[in-house]
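Letters spell out the chain; the tokens describe the backbone. To illustrate:

===
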Amino acid sequence: MSWKEVEHIFNRALQFTFSRKKFLFIFPVLMVCGLIIVLCRALAFGANSWVAMSLAFLPVFLCSAIFLAAGIVLIRIYHHEVKALPVSYHRTVRQSMELMVGIAYLCVPLLLAYLLLWIALGIFFLLKEIPAIGDTLGLILSFGPFLLVLSSFLLSLLNLVILFFVTPAVSLKTGHWLPLAEELWKRARSSAFSHIAFFFLGNLPLVLMLTLSILSAVVTGKSYIEAGRSLSVAVQWFFIMVPFSALLSFFVIFFFNFAAESHVLLQRKWKQSN
């Protein structure tokens, strides 16, 4: 695998990113995800730390299911564009409906795993509230909440890995999911460095823009938005989500375009090596 091949797929993924139709497709998806985040943020307003933490991670798993379904359509559209085939969003969505519903269920085990972590964290909060010895127990057992929060972040990262590697594999190849999962695992083990490199390269533009947008939103919230009632906070953050979603739309499109390109290139190299 040469640098010219990587540069070629990066430039081609970028070339098909700036599309008005794709923007109009993904923008409402991002707005729905933004609404979920705003609702969770409003519910967490004034709540205790245990509830607030659950509402901070919960949107990650709910939005991942939505992005998995939307990614199916974006990748299939991109596949047609690259091959200069006629593109019909309505037909692509209709033909992908069953697959979109099926792939969204991949997030259910991760969501259940997170709920178990959240319940386990609640036990530590309960132990900390025991009279007389609660504070001492909290100090001694502080490693437990640390490991549980770390596990929550790792589950969120796993969601992103699934979005990047599984979505194009499912979109571009029909068949049973178990053989497909085995093939992906064998391919990742045989060329781990390439998979990690493509993963970071595909996520870099999105992560940079997301970081800047979140920092801007946080600074705006601290300096401009008054922390009143939860309803007013939700309304204010909802209107922030409109430009937030618009800015992220093209970066999400590029993410799925590059994921499709990476899948095809890595699969071709894996077959050649075998």
The chain has ten helices and no strands.
